[in-house]
Design goal:
With 146 residues, the chain is mainly β. The chain has one helix and ten strands; from the N terminus they run βββββββαβββ. A five-stranded antiparallel sheet has the order 1-7-8-9-5, covered by helices on one side. A five-stranded antiparallel sheet has the order 6-2-3-4-10, with no helix packed on it. It starts with a strand and ends in a 44-residue tail after the last strand. The model has no long low-confidence stretch (mean pLDDT 84).
């Protein structure tokens, strides 16, 4: 799969082993749709924060062997997907990958993972380097929509 547009990391939902990448709308560049790429049942990953364009392909036999040696443990039904031309561009070991495009107005939500509210900037959330008088939670898990 080749996506000839900028794509970036949006979130990794640990509890559901889901990785979401997104290509944002940009009318100036002629990108009138939002692209979302969702990897499900992720067993291991190494991804960049941003790709100017993105190719997703199955790993060659040699690459998959290298990944399975580097990432021990059960892979169950996971397949090795390479992000780019070489492993250096990143990889995802996952059960499946889905993608879709939407011309709807962009929101913080996802049309491929609608049951979760994606993270938003919260200026009130404490910064890890701020002095604390009592322990506070820095990380808040994704809230499931009901």
């Amino acid at each position: 799969m080749n996506f000839a547009r900028p794509v970036g990391l949006v979130t990794y939902i640990i509890g559901h082993s889901q990785l979401l990448l997104r290509g944002h709308q940009n009318d100036e560049q002629g990108l009138s749709t939002t692209l979302e790429i969702l990897f499900k049942n992720v067993r291991a990953l190494s991804v960049r924060a941003h790709y100017p364009s993105l190719t997703i392909r199955h790993a060659s036999g040699e690459e998959e062997t290298e990944l399975r040696e580097a990432v021990p443990g059960p892979w169950y039904d996971a397949q090795a997907f390479v992000l780019g031309e070489r492993l250096l561009g990143g990889f995802v070991a996952a059960g499946a990958v889905y993608w879709g495009e939407s011309s709807a107005q962009e929101t913080y939500g996802s049309f491929l993972v609608p049951e979760y509210e994606l993270p938003q900037l919260d200026l009130g959330r404490p910064h890890p380097s701020e002095p604390q008088t009592e322990p506070r939670t820095i990380h808040a898990p994704y809230r499931q929509r009901r």
